[in-house]
Each structure stands twice: as C-alpha cells, then as structure tokens.
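Summary of Year 1 activities. Much of the first year was spent building the evaluation harness for sequence design. The harness presents a backbone, in tokenized form, and records the residue chosen at every position. We chose the following record to illustrate the format because it has been used consistently in internal testing since the harness was completed.
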C-alpha cells in the first residue's frame, strides 16, 4: 500500500533521471498518447504527500499518483521489466535508464499549474516545509469527524494512508471512530505521524512496532486474531465519508472509544 514513505522513496529512485535528457517517451494511455517529451531534460522529481511531481525542461510537470497498486521502476536501459507490459502507463527513456510507471495515474500539466493538482493538500509529513501546527489546526477545525477519518484526509496532512491511520490510532490508544474533539493530545498524535513516516522512509519494510520479525512489524493493520499487546481479538470495520469508506482495524481494549 503506497503511503507517504513509499512515495518519498519513489521520488528518490526517480532522482536518477534528474539532469538527464529523455531520449524517448512512451505514454500508454489515451489521454496522453500523443505526448512526446523526447529531447527534453528531466529537472527533478519531488513528492508531495502521496503525489509525485516530475518537472521537465520547458515548463512541464508529469504528475503521478500510485493509488493502490502503482509503482515506478527505474532500471538500466533495456533491462527486463519486473511487471507485465500491459500494466505500464508510461516509459521514460534516457541514454542510461528506463523509468516505467506501472498502474500509475498520470497527468501532464504546466509546472506553473502544479497547485491545481496538489494545492489542496495539507502540510506534507515528509516535505521540507512540514508544519505540525498547521496540520493540528486543520484536523481540529472539524471536531466531530472520527479521528481515523481525519488522519486519512490529505487536506489535513499529506502522507498518511490506510496502514498508518490504523497504526497511529493504535499507538495513541484511540478507537478510530472517536471524534477529533475527544482526542486528548492532538499535537502529540500529529508528531507521532511525522516520526513514524520519517522512521520508515529509508526502510524496505514498514515497521511500527519496533519488531522486525514476520507478522509482528505492524500492530493492527490487516491483523486477524489477537492483539499483539493484550491478546484481545482485533476488530475490523469500514470507516470514512460515504462512498469513500476504507477498512480499519483496531483493538477494542487498547483503543477505547471514550477517553
Ligand atoms: Zn490490545
């Protein structure tokens, strides 16, 4: 599940292209099928929450989002692909590397118009301008919203996905349905979100428990059976605004509904 840490790692992988000229580009989706960026130089790729912005000479930005299954592979030019060709949405070729976007969602916009795609996002947990006070202010502005929903809302803070929202609620001892107004220490919750993403941005595996053993890396996300801490069966439910519900896992004993 791509979350802010995965996207940050992807931006770093794509940084191999920075400063290199595109020898050819191959867009494999109808809306961009006629686009050819060959001959232009890649300037940089930055992450903003779960979004990737690849800036290209001439004032163009290739915006990509990994959604649930997407990934970018960056590999030696001509090397064999690790995913099926029909999943490729774009291929960027340079003299030395191929970058293949598999199952990514793409837009091409003027670099000056990037804000139309990412301007709604709250402070970026892994951005150079991370602003915890602003994230707290945005979350607190909707006190009736369940905290598990507020953490996932990229307009509040950018980078938390379904894994981290479940894990953060566990670590903070909060039933994810508890309204924001009933969270005892919102600044601490936001600080934990930042610390978790920073701790995981350089790791191949996502770990929230501090335990690297298989099956013990995460507290509650996708856990069936007993809570790692207290042994109570983990509960599963859907949580989110109507039509955008996502699965959430929690321990009813470690994460009480009321303070
Ligand atoms: Zn428990």
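For this record, the design step produced the sequence shown next.
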């Amino acid at each position: 599940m791509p979350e802010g840490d995965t996207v940050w790692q992807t931006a770093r992988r794509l940084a191999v292209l920075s400063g290199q000229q595109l020898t050819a580009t191959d867009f494999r989706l109808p809306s961009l099928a006629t686009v050819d960026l060959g001959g232009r130089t890649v300037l940089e790729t930055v992450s903003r929450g779960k979004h990737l912005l690849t800036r290209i000479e001439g004032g163009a930005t290739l915006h990509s989002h990994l959604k649930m299954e997407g990934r970018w592979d960056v590999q030696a030019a001509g090397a064999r692909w690790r995913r099926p060709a029909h999943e490729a949405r774009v291929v960027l070729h340079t003299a030395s590397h191929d970058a293949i976007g598999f199952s990514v969602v793409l837009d091409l916009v003027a670099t000056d118009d990037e804000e139309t795609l990412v301007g709604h996002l709250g402070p970026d947990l892994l951005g150079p301008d991370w602003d915890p006070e602003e994230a707290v202010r945005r979350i607190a502005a909707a006190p009736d919203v369940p905290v598990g929903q507020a953490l996932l809302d990229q307009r509040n803070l950018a980078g938390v996905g379904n894994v981290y929202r479940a894990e953060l609620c566990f670590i903070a001892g909060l039933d994810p349905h508890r309204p924001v107004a009933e969270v005892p220490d919102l600044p601490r919750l936001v600080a934990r979100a930042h610390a978790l993403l920073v701790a995981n941005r350089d790791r191949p595996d996502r770990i929230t428990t501090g335990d690297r053993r298989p099956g013990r890396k995460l507290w509650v996300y996708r856990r069936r059976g007993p809570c790692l801490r207290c042994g109570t069966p983990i509960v599963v439910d859907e949580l989110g605004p109507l039509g955008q519900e996502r699965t959430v896992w929690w321990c009813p004993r470690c994460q009480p509904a009321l303070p």
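The chain has six helices and ten strands. Quantitative recovery figures across the full test set are reported in Table 2.
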